[in-house]
Amino acid sequence: MNNLLLMPAVATNNSNQFEYADYEEVLEQPETSINSYVSFLDANTNHITMDELKSQCVVPTWANQELTISHQDFIESVHDAAKSFYQGEAVTAPSIRVSHIVRGRTPNALGKRASELLECEKTQFYQRLAFAFTIPTIYETVDGKRLELCVGGVRNYNDLNLYRSSKGVEKFCVFVGWRVRICSNQVLTGQGVKLSLEVMDLKQLYQQVMELFNQFNPAKDIHLMQTLSNTYLTETQFAQVIGRMRLYQALPQGLSRRIPRLLITDSQINNVCREYYHSEDFGGKGGSLSMWNFHNLLTEANKSSYIDSYLQRAVNATDVSVGLNNALRGDMTYQWFLG
User: Fold this and answer.
1) Nearest CA among 264, 74, 227 for reference residue 155
2) Which residues fall within 8 angstroms of residue 177, CB to CB, at 6 or more apart?
3) pLDDT the model gives residue 287
4) 153 close to 172: Cβ distance less than 8 angstroms
């Protein structure tokens, strides 16, 4: 895995201190011309371009009329941090998904009926946003499938109390991990995901994203996925796991507390069952299913999640797959799912 030797683009003074490039002085890095629009998140979302975000969407404010960090500034900050940290590598343009549109109108159109509004009098923004881009020159292969380093983030305005009389902390989710190229399935572990990143401004956001990149160990994740590819479920074991997953949704509270969390929904479990028989890339072959393919069935099903639960379920898919892999080798933590 020689291609996984990653060095930050900035120097360190000592082992405990990381010196960041100045936010205002991000070096220009090559950006690939490859169209990065991929279906990393499908249902309940719409694709949008950066230009559309900038030209068609307003930016919500706090109660004192101070601007929040806009969606486009969030994306550009993470994108710039990735280009700086992985200096010299190709970085694709972000693919952006949005949901939960909030429509409004300009002050001069307050007395008009909705049908009478001119286009210039209409306003809108999206409560929820997710984006992702890849660094295709940093890659590895697991079970014959190419994985590329992937970076992205999630933002949900519902996490903020915009009625505050003064500007408050803003919350974001940011991740770095791997993405399977042929299907854009995300491979995310807790190590590469910050589910609650709280900042006051863009400079803090940039620095915390750089910290996430610095602590992320890509080779460790690849080794974990390769371990999954060497363990198999029989068809009977797969059916047992699926049955237990269905039971999990109805467990009494006292029992569910003693069992590791499972965030996948019933409809997503149905999708896993269907793809077990029909997926050409990750389905069961000859009655057996590698834990790597099982993980991909879970992450493929996760594409139907809402934006605000997408990252949590992606990490949970990895936790469940690794837990079951360990259970097949004798560990008791996830043994309940195997019966």
Assistant:
1) 74
2) 149, 150, 186, 187, 188, 189, 192, 193, 216, 221
3) 83
4) yes
Tokens linked to 133: 């881009």
Closest CA to 244 of 282, 213, 272: 272
CA pair distance 49, 57, nearest whole angstrom: 11
The 3-state secondary structure of the chain reads CHHHCCCCCCCEEECCEECCCCHHHCCCCCECCCCCCCCCCCCCCEEECHHHHHHHCCCCECCCCCECCCHHHHHHHHHHHHHHHCCCCCECCCEEEEEEEEEEECHHHCCCCHHHCCHHHEEEEEEEEEEEEEEEEEEEEECCEEEEEEEEEEEEHHHCCCCCCCCCCEEEEEEEEEEECCCCCEECCHHHEEEEEEECCHHHHHHHHHHHHHHCCHHHHHHHHHHHCCCEEEHHHHHHHHHHHHHHCCCCHHHHCCCCCCCCCHHHHHHHHHHHHHCCCCCCECCEEEHHHHHHHHHHHHHHCCHHHHHHHHHHHHHHHHHHHHHHCCCCCCHHHHC
Reported as a pLDDT band with limits 50, 70 and 90, residue 33 is very low
Percent of the chain beyond pLDDT 90? 72
Question: Which of 74-83, 181-190, 208-217 has the lowest average pLDDT?
Answer: 181-190
Mean pLDDT of 144-160: 94
Tell the residue number behind the tokens 């493929």, with chain if given.
300
Contact yes or no for 155/74 (Cβ under 8 A): yes
